[in-house]
Amino acid sequence: MAQFDVYKNTNIKTKDEIPFLLDIQHNILEDSTTRVMIPLGFQIQINNTINPSFLINEVKVTLMTTFMATMAVEQLGQKVSSLKDKRDEIISSIDFLITGF
User: 5-99: which CATH topology?
Assistant: First the structure.
């Protein structure tokens, strides 16, 4: 489990609209029983800065930054990808959420 890993959403109620979840928690906290996650779903883009889009397993999804939440580690599905190469875009979306720019 590492920062910017992408997991399959296993929640029966939300997995059709939110197929993936992005782990944004820093690796220094790897012993935590929870992870801070951002959904990757089919939400209409509000703003490219706060809601960048990514291609995961040939599926275009949007980072739903305003829906950031914690999840228990045991609830995470299978790791399917990593967005560590998109770190700057992800951090910018979180900065925009918190600071407004």
Answer: SH3 type barrels. (2.30.30)
* CA nearest to 92, candidates 83, 30, 71, 73: 83
For 42-69, give the secondary structure using H, E and C.
Answer: CCCCCCCCCCCEEEECCEEEEECHHHCE
Integer distance in angstroms from the first to the last C-alpha of the chain? 30
Q: What is the pLDDT of residues 72-96, one digit of tens each?
A: 999 998 999 999 999 999 999 999 9
